[in-house]
Amino acid sequence: MASFQVRRNKNGEITQVEAPNGKPSILFSTINRFVKDKEQALRYWSQAYTPSFKSWFGDWQNNSSTKNVETQSELLTLQSQILNTNGDINYKELKEACDTVINGQAYINILSLGEETGRTKGGRRHVEASLIATANERANYKKQTDVKRTEQEKLLEEYAKETGSWIEAEEFPESEILGEGAEAKLFKSSKQGYVRKVVNYRKFSKTTHEYLTNRVSLHNYLFLILRMSWLDLLQLKILLVKSSLHLS
What are phi and psi of 198, to 5 degrees? Predict the structure, then answer.
């Protein structure tokens, strides 16, 4: 079984952290963007390997289903079939591929095995949206970023409307803004204990594929209290008391 590696220079400073798959950890890099102290970022990152963390997400290091290379290869084949030859979504193949991921029989081979558990924690909508964006990304890897971004946005809009999760911009009037940050705005919600969060994913991500992976899936993997799914990009259930958000 592979183990993670922390590489340091002659001064003892962290130069690279490798995930159990031997690749540079995207999760550590993401944490380090917000926690500039690499030693502190490493402490946060290492929590993923503790018994308490595994009791929440499952013991992904000893999960035989994630080690089944044939199953993983099958999923990659399914990903290529999610989009028809004309680029439309094949909903039958999408459902089957999503079931394979959610049931733990395979995973989307982008992040490390442990980090990919954050994708399934986002639920079916998040996994299906990820599969669509990933299929487009891999089929069009030679295309310019702006072309892929436009195609992925159109596909996910179609998917959202098909599944009844599309929300029109008119439902978020400026008069109901509670606050805003660098990439998102918080709006009032008619549901008690909820707020609605609208995210400008382009602020820190080039494509929806990148956003769903590096912002949402890794968020789910890292944070145990807040659970952000793809649908929650527009309507986020806040699991904190209102007073902690300074909302009246």
Answer: -110, 120
- How many Å apart are CA 135 and CA 198, to the nearest integer? 25
d(CA 194, CA 238): 6
For residue 58, what are the contacts with CB-CB under 8 A and spacing of at least 6? 117
**How is the chain split among helix, strand and coil, in percent rounded to 5?**
55, 10, 35
- The type of residue at 40 is Q
Q: Distance of CA 246 to CAs 175, 179, 191, 199, 242, Å?
A: 18, 10, 17, 20, 6
Amino acid (1-letter code) at residue 29: S
Kindly state the percentage of the chain with pLDDT values over 70: 74
Name which of 181, 120, 131 is nearest 155 in CA terms.
131
Mean pLDDT of 124-152: 90
- Distance between CA atoms of residues 156 and 145, nearest Å: 16
Q: 5-8 and 196-199 as β-strands: parallel, antiparallel, unpaired? A: unpaired
Helix (H, G, I), strand (E, B) or coil at 7: strand
φ/ψ (deg, to 5) at 19: -75, 170
**pLDDT tens-digit readout, 94-104:** 998 888 888 87
Q: Where are the alpha helices (DSSP H) in the chain?
A: 26-34, 38-46, 51-57, 69-81, 91-102, 113-120, 124-139, 145-162, 208-210, 218-222
pLDDT digits (tens, 9 = 90+) for 147-193: 999 999 999 999 999 999 898 888 889 899 999 988 889 999 888 88
Task: Report CA 73 to chain centroid distance, whole Å.
Answer: 21
